[in-house]
Design brief:
alpha/beta, binds uridine-diphosphate-N-acetylglucosamine, globular, 17 helices, 6-stranded parallel beta sheet, about 400 residues
Length: about 400
């Protein structure tokens, strides 16, 4: 095994761009703070870059406030565009930042456009000064690597495949991800099974979330309720996809009060197809703007069930033992089905209703916690990264493969 050569301080740059990134980066930022506070070597200089992919108060800033994330050192302020334009704009604006800072490690998380855009810039960069160790670019670390839905019509699947193929250190959340990466020819020396940083953040904030007053504000007083999130383009961008889902939710609301925080894309779809009024006039369905992290976690924690097309929420419900009905044909997070509380039902109303009835009858999945979803994943990642040599080797003793 190569011996790690440590230079002090070490510079780690992390990228956050869209809502699901913030909870993941929060765990890594906490672990870096902890590493430095404990006097570990090397001291880590942490630089946080926000691409600005999400920019609304309710999609971005409120997460920074609630999660205690440091203010971004840089905000690229890219905003919303088509995929190509957004990705290109992030790359264009990120390159000078990377050249100015020359970090030892670039950490990208998840599967959003910001993830792949920044990884691609880093993979091709040439630092102006070649260090004594010959470093000409940062080591690229991908957190939440190896997840595959097998569905290349999902933009996130393209982002995952490309980011993983560009990365030098791949930190995975579940065992299947390891075999996915090996099958794609990624060498096993680069792969580290560390668990789930999103679940670290959940553990850290659950107690505080339980003190939120959101249920009172939503008119839920210890009653049963379902929590719904929908935002996948395949579910909300066409009338053919969205209308049957709206009808199905209307039907479920006969048996269960439903809460639906609306992603901007979903609100736009409902308005475009004239479905918003119908939803708003149903007193058993409550529509809200996107919620902050603590309020949403409060609602997740005590929901009778969750219906979602999100990736991360499949994992959070598994961690909380809450039944989850996933309104997609595939999932890149199979451990939530094999070990957790997730039902993958697709968008066929009959299948959705069957799963909902099973849960309402009290026969819903109880589930177990997947390996290493123990709140310590960020620590494992930072311990591993802090042992990186300038050649890009990770000390294998530190983290489990
Ligand atoms: C992005 C991610 C998706 C993630 C989701 C969580 C990609 C390819 N997709 O999808 O994986 O699950 O974030 O939300 O990166 N908008 C606002 N305010 C904002 C941000 C967006 O109004 O702060 C609106 C804009 O009209 C924009 C639309 O939402 O066009 C979609 O935003 P975008 O970041 O392009 O994709 P998401 O659907 O949010």
């Amino acid at each position: 095994m190569a011996v790690a050569r440590i230079f002090i301080p070490m510079k780690i740059m992390t990228i956050a761009g869209a809502r699901p990134n913030f909870m993941k980066v929060a765990s890594i930022a906490d672990a870096i703070r902890h590493h430095n506070k404990e006097g570990n070597s090397p001291v880590i200089d942490h630089i946080l870059v926000h691409t600005g992919q999400h920019y609304d108060e309710s999609m971005s800033q409120c997460f920074f406030d609630e999660l205690g994330l440091p203010r971004p050192d840089v905000n690229l302020e890219v905003g919303s565009e088509s995929h190509a334009q957004q990705t290109a704009e992030i790359m264009r604006r990120f390159e000078p930042v990377l050249l100015a800072e020359c970090p030892d490690v670039l950490v990208v998380v998840g599967d959003v456009n910001s993830t792949v855009a920044c990884a691609l810039v880093a993979a091709k960069i040439q630092y102006p000064l070649q260090g004594i160790s010959g470093k000409v670019r940062p080591l690229i670390a991908h957190v939440e690597a190896g997840l595959r839905s097998g569905d290349r019509s999902m933009p996130e699947e393209i982002n995952r495949l490309l980011t993983d193929s560009l990365s030098d250190a791949l930190f995975v959340t579940e065992e299947v991800a390891v075999s996915n990466l090996l099958r794609e020819g990624i060498s096993k020396e680069k792969i580290y099974f560390v668990g789930n940083v999103m679940i670290d953040t959940l553990h850290r904030h659950l107690e505080k979330a339980r003190r939120s007053e959101i249920k009172h504000a939503m008119g839920i007083n210890n009653g049963r309720y379902g929590l719904i999130t929908l935002h996948r383009p395949s579910n909300v961008d066409t009338r053919d996809a969205l209308e049957p889902l709206v009808r199905c939710l209307q039907e479920i609301s006969n048996d269960l009060f439903l809460l639906l925080p609306l992603h901007p894309r979903t609100r736009a779809g409902l308005e475009r197809f004239g479905l918003l009024d119908e939803f708003e006039s149903n007193r058993k369905i409550k529509l809200t703007p996107p919620l902050g992290y603590l309020d949403f976690l409060n609602l997740l924690d005590t929901a009778t069930m969750v219906l979602t097309d999100s990736g991360g929420i499949q994992e959070e419900t598994t961690a909380l033992g809450v039944p989850c009905v996933t309104l997609r044909e595939n999932t890149e997070r199979p451990v939530t089905i094999t070990t957790g509380t997730n039902y993958l039902v697709g968008t066929d109303p009959a299948k959705i209703l069957a799963a909902v009835r099973e849960i309402l009858s009290g026969m819903g999945k109880k589930g177990q916690i997947p390996p290493y979803w123990d709140g310590l994943s960020g620590e494992r990642i930072v311990a591993g990264l802090s042992n990186i040599s300038r050649q890009g080797e990770v000390n294998e003793e530190v983290i489990k493969k």
